[in-house]
Amino acid sequence: MVLHSFSTGKNLVYYTPALGPxxxxxxxxxxxxETVRAxxxxxxxxxxxxxxxxxxxxxxxxxxxxxxxxxSLEETPPRRQDLLYLQAGSTSLHAGILGMSLFQNGKTVxxxxxxxxxxxxxxxxxxxxxxRVIQFPNMALMMDDTRTxxxxxxxxxxxxxxxx
Amino acid sequence: MRIYNGSPTxxxxxxxxxxxxxxxxxxxxxxxxxxxxVVEYLDKNTHYEPTxxxxxxxxxxxxxxxxxxxxxxxSLLGKNFHLPILMSNHRxxxxxxxxxxxxxxxxxxxPELNYLxxxxxxxxxxxxxxPTELLxxxxxxxxxxxxxxxxxxxxxxxxxxxxxxxIFITAYQIWHRRSASAAKGIRxxxxxxxxxxxxxxxxxxxxxxxxFATANYELEGPKAGEQFRSSCNASEMFFWLCGQQETYRVLxxxxxxxxxxxxxxxxxxxxERPGRSYVPQGxxxx
Lengths: 164, 286
Fold this sequence. Notes:
Oligomer: heterodimer
Largest sheet of chain A: 5 strands, antiparallel
Low-confidence stretches of chain A: none
Number of helices of chain B: 5
Largest sheet of chain B: 5 strands, antiparallel
């Protein structure tokens, strides 16, 4: 599927001729181009299925129409789980971050050695950017106040990225 | 037995600083001629354990018994500390990616300081050469190597980038890693281990007026753990090094050793006069 974009000054707008001029996707509603692409593929599959339903109701459904649906599913890019480990100062989503490890599209993301370059200041900022918490800090590690185990409050988050 | 009987060089404040951070750096303390000779030696003996270098008199005299380094080790490990009997070389061909954060195998966590892991750069190690990074205060963060492999970027990291001839002395269990390097060529980093042979006592350079009650035991900068935990950890190690482990106690609340601006000696200070605080059973001397 070919993706086109233009800027309105405020927003970046994505569209594809396959979906017609009405189907437009605004950045940053979708946080990255892979998410936009996935949303477009979803819309295209839906459009083809709707057409199949119409043809079915008219008694005109053909193998060609059904194959068109299958072909549009082929457009779905393979998805990979991205992982973000955030070691925070406390269990609060607002707590400052002591450490960050980022694995995107099957690779370790380098270049974040300096905390000034970290994309998020706390867990909440990551959640607002589409990350989902899949593990909260293990409280059992914090029950003994005389010992500090690891960096303490580790959140693990995931997001799905498309394989470009 | 290979032991050292020289004089200590660290003061109370410097020993306490080591307790807080878990390391200290002595920059460019080994003469350039020795550094060059070490590099030449290591170009011939490229084994990861070039232990034979410990049989070279010139090396022992200038590196292992280097006045400043041995003086610092003497301060922390007491008189008659044992000299290294094993030499490791973290020799790598740069550029290399960053290594993983880890503690060395067989790490023990706690207030005792019975041995030291020491590193020596025979060549200048700027950031381009991937100097070892250390996490200040992490010698008190219990962990195991296999649970640290996912850690990447940490706040408050100290880079040991330093000129040729620099030696850094660490608590064995401190968290560390090789940083990424961009330069091209061979980098050597020697690593060796001293240990204590006598019980701890405060026989380093005593600072007149050093006040145990008002000293600042809190680690500066980012830290993990419960609030004021770093003060408790560092003060306990400091008391242990002073041979006062039986005296040490933390009563809780606003007691010593929490950092604060007080009008009087802190509640629960271990050396306070008898009867000034009610000391529950199990809180050390009384």
